[in-house]
Fold this sequence. Notes:
The complex is a heterodimer.
Chain A: H1 2-17, E1 33-40, E2 46-52, E3 74-79, E4 82-91, E5 103-108, E6 118-124, E7 130-136, E8 142-143, E9 149-151, E10 158-164, E11 172-184, E12 187-194, E13 198-202, E14 205-209, E15 218-222, H2 223-232, E16 243-246, E17 250-256, H3 258-266, E18 276-277, E19 290-301, E20 304-306, H4 308-312, E21 317-319
Parallel strand pairs in A: 1-19, 9-20, 16-21
Antiparallel strand pairs in A: 1-2, 2-5, 3-4, 3-6, 4-5, 6-7, 8-10, 10-15, 11-12, 11-16, 11-17, 13-14, 17-19
Chain B: H1 2-18, E1 29-38, E2 49-52, E3 57-60, E4 66-73, E5 76-83, E6 90-96, E7 101-103, E8 106-108, H2 123-126, E9 135-138, H3 140-145, H4 154-158, E10 164-165, E11 175-176, E12 184-188, E13 191-192, E14 197-198, E15 203-204, E16 211-217, E17 231-237, E18 246-251, E19 255-264, E20 267-276, E21 293-304, E22 313-327, E23 335-350, E24 355-371, E25 380-396, E26 402-419, E27 425-446, E28 449-460, E29 469-481, E30 484-495, E31 497-499, E32 505-507, E33 513-515, E34 523-537, E35 540-557, E36 569-587, E37 590-605, E38 608-610, E39 618-629, E40 632-641, E41 645-646, E42 649-658, E43 669-677, E44 683-684, E45 688-701, E46 704-713, E47 721-725, E48 730-733, E49 738-746
Parallel strand pairs in B: 1-7, 1-8, 12-17
Antiparallel strand pairs in B: 1-4, 2-3, 2-5, 5-6, 9-16, 10-11, 12-13, 14-15, 16-17, 18-19, 18-49, 19-20, 20-21, 21-22, 22-23, 23-24, 24-25, 25-26, 26-27, 27-28, 28-29, 29-30, 30-34, 31-33, 34-35, 35-36, 36-37, 37-38, 37-39, 39-40, 40-45, 41-44, 42-43, 45-46, 46-49, 47-48
Amino acid sequence: MKSIKLLIISSLVFIFLSCEEDFNPYGDYFERYAFTCILKSDQQYQTATLFKSYRPDGYDPLTYTEDPSVVGADIRIWYNDSVFVFKDTSVARVDTSRYKTPFKFYYNDKFRVGNRKTIELEVLLPNGRRLRSSSFTPGQIQFDDDSDVLIPSGGKATSEVMWNTQTDGTFFYPRMSIRYKQNVNGEIIEKTIDVPYKFVNQGGSQVPVYPAPSASATIVYDLSAITKTLEGISAGDPNKQNYSVLQKIIFSVAAFDLPTSRYVSSTGGTIDDLTVNVDVSDYTNIEGGFGLFGSYSKRDYTRLRFVEDYIESFGYNFIVED
Amino acid sequence: MRVQIISTLFYVVLVLLIIPTELIKPQQQGNLRGFVTDSTNGEALVFCNVFLKEINVGASTNERGLYLIKSIPSGKEYEVTVSYVGYKTKVFTAFVKPGMVTQLDVKLIPLSVELQTIEKVGEKVIHENTTDISLERISVKEIEIQPKGVETDIFRSLQYIPGVSTTGDVTAKFYVRGGSGDQNLILLNGVEIYNPFHSLGLFSVIDPDMINSIEFYKGGFTSEYNGRVSSVMDVISKDGNKNRIGFKGGLSFLTAKGLLEGPIPNGSFMITGRMSYSNEVLKNFFNEQTIPIDFYDLSFKLNYSSEDIFENAKFAVFGFLSNDNVDYQDPLREQFKWNNNLFGFEWLQIYDVPLFSRLGISLSTFEGEVIPNLSSLKPRYNEVKDFTISFDMNVVYENRDEIGLGLKLKTVDTKFSQTNFVGVQSNVEKFAGNLSLYGKYKFLQWKNFGLDAGTRFNVTGLSSQGGGFFEPRVSMTYRFLPSVAFQAAWGIYQQEMLTVSDESEIISIFDPWIITPDYLNPARSIHYIAGLDFDVSRGIRFSVEGYYKIIHYIPIVNDQKFTTSDPDLLSGTGESYGSELSLNYSLDPLNVTTSYALSWAYKEVDDWLYYPKYDARHAANIIVELNIGSGWIASSIWNFTSGYPFTEMIGFYDKYFLTNIYSSGQGSGEYNPYAYLGDKNIGRLPSYHRLDLSLIKRLTLFYANIELGVSIINVYDRANIFYFDRNTGEVVNMLPFLVTGTLKVEL
């Protein structure tokens, strides 16, 4: 009987002691490099970043505070039969909660990219490793309507803008902004405000929803969202006459090249909040490393204009531009 | 090519076997046939033994409760013993007429204390030459007394069968002998259910209260089944109480359910419903997340049998509906919906000669949808409409041999659309038909040898490359010693429908079904199984099985699909092998089952070999059930599995996330740590083990039978790792110590 009791007790002790086991999610470490560069069509100042990988002491990567930037790399981009060499530089870091050193990056301020051009990249790291990539810049954005589009438009509750680049798989990122001037104690301050395409009711409060990058080549703005935005610029201020809204609305669309579209899609959120995927694929077009080498082109649509009566209905002044 | 050579050889052997067989003997003998039912409700009792003591022969009832004993020396009276677990054994006298079928229907009375183990009379004789390797007959009554996470669940009970694995407590999805989840055929009354899971795979949609019998083939299944390459679960629902109106109600921490059944003129009906009313308990499954899951399932069956219309015919109309919805009631959050609808008609006919037939007509649909609303998710949609007509017949010869023949016409209409992680759209729509025929010969005339040899032939295929394909199969038993039988099975199987699921998802909300696309061959597997079955002594049984399974053309999701013209799927190969041992001791009041499985599973795609996520080297279970008496029943389950594969993390890099390109400088995006990984599934999680206990009390109060149950899950609070969240560095564990309760009332 004694031996049975001993057996039971020792079994229980064994079982309870084995309730948790050490688990190490790490495999053997090998260093990798991440290069990121999205070339722009609307400016000559192009930037790139180059980081090395790291492994923190524990599992929380935020505990690793040594700046992983790699300086001294030879970065060359071939575009339009020319080669552009990037130089390294640094700026003060906006967020110093993790890395204390200045933010290091590479730049070249001598070119902007056009439409439908091949771009090629080669990065020679200080340790002799090479990263390579290439892409093809996106096509020209064509807007579907060449005549002025008025807001509001003939009693319609929505305003729609459509465009295309004749390229499959392109992601677009549209934005609408209202420009206005505010008289603050006699000083005229110019401001812009981004316009959500709709407001939704979330738990009793109205929440703005802004456009996000997607494959959709159209966007529909609710007039109510534009109205709410216009109301918002003078919220709490009874002196509506201090506000002047410009007639022309800024509407811009950025079209990404295919690698950037894929990258943006793959980093644009999880599949959903419920699915648990333990090996999420990591998109990159950098041979030998991680990151992205891509481009985007941006174009403004200048045909969107406010109707004077509509702006004045808020008590604002209406500014007509040439 | 290799498969075709094997098929040809098989037919040569089959013909050689059949030709010398003496099919029909002079009609100097008689046959005994009938249905065995529960006396209280008229439900068919399946796998019940009917035994003739004088000549030491017997038969077991089939899934409809029908038995047939052939070639009985006629003109005599026999003592017929009918026995079944949990029922009072009955002895009858029957006179067997020469050259005729003598009908003897039997009603057995259930014992007041359920699960009392009554040894089935003639068990050894009846199953001497039964060709049932890798077949598990699952008793719902046994499942009901097992500890429950929240609900009694037939799929969760499968994980205690050697050879069946799951990737965690959170999911009832199962994997059989190295096959993936979509390679398991789930049939309800012979009709396929495409997505048999509620709540992200937590529970099966099939409420155990509606089940009469379950047969589960881990492999080596015979020619009457088709469409999957790994396993078959064949669930037959209850007919409904033929004697009186009855009602059952049940309550768990998650659902409320009810069952109404009763007689109708010349038949019976049964209707069951179950719906979720609270999802608080689900927090234990979802890492303390509150997920607004609502679900219900509803099933019905109507039986009709009248001698005035068709003699010895039985008609049934049945239906099954399940619906799940995840709705956050927030326009900025996504919404998920999925449902199964199934309707069927069945005509069972017994003829004056030993011939049975079954005609089935059914429609089974599945629809699943991810509605992004204003979230960043991408819309996904899947629809399946499966219309099937099947006809099966079974002829039994005087020498006990049988011939089975059948045909099945299936049309499937699928629609599938989704956008993958790099934003590339897939739109797949296909309507196709599969006409298949099967024929098989069951050689049962030798008492110590049984053989089931047959083939299925796909006249046309759902996929463009699935037609004109033979699926030969053979299963045999040779009892070379009275208590030891050698069993073996071999077969070729084809599967033309698959789920486009990312196999890295350990919880998946969207498992869309499509027909194998034209650019791929349909998946084809070959099973090789052999084993020994020992009846060690009274109440003790030991079995050992070894298997090898190879699956060609396994479709695997292409995670390098970067353009619409890239294929959604790639073709891979799967291979698995292993051995399984089980030891069962069953003598009132104790029932102990222990099992152990040693297994290996691999997949290979693009010359890259890896372990699938459900590959575990060792698995062991110990199940103890004790009938304490006075309505008290206790049970415990200890389950051990060696570590599942996982992909190791190598390190992190700072990854760029574009936030707003309209901002300049550092504001256009942000850099966040992102884990990069090593070779797929090369690491192993720590081993899994868990002890669950259950105590049930059954009592009668006034006119109600009441069952109160309490389960303790993970008694010693083992921290079994479910997965490692690389974003947070958090180890997410499976179910912690948990106490759950159930209440059932039967009027």
